Amino acid sequence: MKVSPHIPRIIQDNIPKLRADLLRRYDESGRTLPWRVRPEDRKRGVVADPYAVWLSEIMLQQTTVPHGTPYWEKFLARWPAVADLARADRDDVLAMWAGLGYYARARNLHKCAQIIRDDYDGSFPKTEKELLKLPGVGPYTAATMAAICFNQPTNIVDGNVERVISRLYAEDAPLPKSKSLLRDLAAPIADSDRPGDYGQALMDLGSTVCTPTSPKCEICPWSFVCRAFKDGNPEYYPQKIKKVRPVKYGAVFALICDGNILMQKRPDKGLLGGMLELPSSPWEQTMPEAPLSFAPDRKNWEKCQGQVKHVFTHFELRLDVYRAETKAQNIEGIWAELDNLLAYAVPTLTKKAITLAMSA
Ligand code: SF4
What we know:
- The protein is α+β, with helices and mostly antiparallel strands and 360 residues long.
- It contains 15 helices and seven strands.
- It has two domains: 9-236, Endonuclease III, domain 1 (Orthogonal Bundle), CATH 1.10.340.30; 247-358, Nucleoside Triphosphate Pyrophosphohydrolase.
- The chain has helices at residues 9-12, 15-29, 39-43, 50-59, 65-78, 82-87, 90-97, 104-119, 128-131, 139-150, 159-168, 179-186, 195-209, 227-231, 348-358, and strands at 247-257, 260-265, 276-277, 302-303, 308-311, 316-325, 334-337.
- Strands 1, 2, 3, 4, 5, 6 and 7 form a seven-stranded mixed sheet that branches.
- Strand 1 and strand 2 (260-265) form a beta hairpin.
- Helix 11 (159-168) packs across helix 13.
- Iron/sulfur cluster is lined by residues 164, 167-168, 209-210, 215, 217, 220, 222-223, 226, 228-229, 234.
């Protein structure tokens, strides 16, 4: 049986004030983001566009606002409505996504747009429970969309909110195991009258005031009850279980012919699914002893100086890069124009390998 977490008396007694002070700060100085409807605009009758909010939420998982915003703008310009995205060729979606990483998000984005078109008459469902059934929509995105777009009282908890809450309560149980505890600790404070504004206000507080280092407690509306502030050690929270990432090694082959480079498509499912890569050896715990046995052809392969390093969630990859020139495109694969790589679904890892090969 799940045990309710202990909410200290000082927080219980101040919940209305915590909500009001946070919302006041948001009304006065919350961030303006292109997909966000500010409270003053909402008063004028402006409503959030679920498609635009959904796109932003999917893109900003694991991505910063400055990095994700240009992608959001490009997607909306090319596919202004969910039906347009549903109709798009998936390879075009992957090409537009290239550089944002975590490519399962792009595959799910496309699949989800088609489900909205086919099963929901082109409109996003309004409840957290229904939203959670969509591919790529997890608890955070469902709660956020339900609150921001449909004014449903939900408990929005992202990484920023986890940090604020862990400090507010001085909760030192380490992430990620403590996720559900932190959600439960956040729940009693969540405002049900203005759920969307409250959620965005709290995320803003985490990203602009309760920052990972040097939090600005002196301007924080919650400092009067914050346990970590009182103890003088906010940066101690949240505690995290340290990940040790194994290292994998491999070799990739840049075969160039008349301004084109040979690439191949990765299997649809799994890591970098559906994206393009250079022909490659398997990625293993040690560098292959005879890397050229994996090369696509017998050429005068030249090993490039240096290595490509790339960090995935579960491992770090180090690649040796080999380069050769050929006169004929007589090997099966995708011969991509080097001057027009943006038109292809080329992930950052492949771009790094091509850059190293071309600088040789
Ligand atoms: S007082 Fe400081 S540590 Fe506490 S929530 Fe505010 S910014 Fe974070």
